Amino acid sequence: MSDDEKYLRRAIELAGEARASGNPPFGSLLVGPDGRILAEDRNTTITDRDISAHPEQKLARWAARELDPETAAGTTMYTSCQPCGMCTGALARSGLGRVVFALSGEQLESLKEPTAPVVAKPVPQEGPFLFEEARVPVEGYYR
Ligand SMILES: [Zn+2]
C-alpha cells in the first residue's frame, strides 16, 4: 500500500467521523515533508453553523498560520473529496505544496440523489463601480 493510499484512507475515516457527528461526510489531513501527520480535521458546517467549516478550508488556514513557507511547500493535503471552489481558493493562498483527493467532484455528484438540494450556487455579481473612489485605499499597497 502506498503512503498516499494510507493517508487517503485516514481522510476517508475522518469523513465517516464527520458524518457520525451530524455533519457532511468530509475529512482531510496534512502530512509534512517528513511523512508525519501535522493536523487533521472534519467538516463541521452543521455543528459549528459555519458555511466555511470545510476541513480543507480549516487546514489551509491552519497551514498558512502555523507553518513556515518551506514546511508548507513540502506539505501534502489528503482529503476524502476533491476540494470545492471555496477551498480551492483558500488552498491557492495557503502555500501548501500538493493536494491528493479520493472522490472527484464529479463522483461526489453521482452519489447524490437527484432531489438533493443544491448546496452552492453562484451569486450574481455587479460592478465595477466608483473606480476613482475605490482606488484610493488600494493605490500604492501592492508593490
Ligand atoms: Zn470546500
Automatic annotation (TrEMBL):
PROSITE patterns membership: CYT_DCMP_DEAMINASES_2
Name of the featured protein: tRNA(Arg) A34 adenosine deaminase TadA
Annotated PANTHER family: CYTOSINE DEAMINASE FAMILY MEMBER, TRNA(ADENINE(34)) DEAMINASE, CHLOROPLASTIC
Listed GO MF terms: catalytic activity
Domain of life of the source: Bacteria
Bilayer-spanning residue ranges: none
Lineage, broadest ranks: Bacteria, Bacillati, Actinomycetota, Actinomycetes, Pseudonocardiales
CMP/dCMP-type deaminase domain: residues covered: 2-113
Cited Pfam families: dCMP_cyt_deam_1
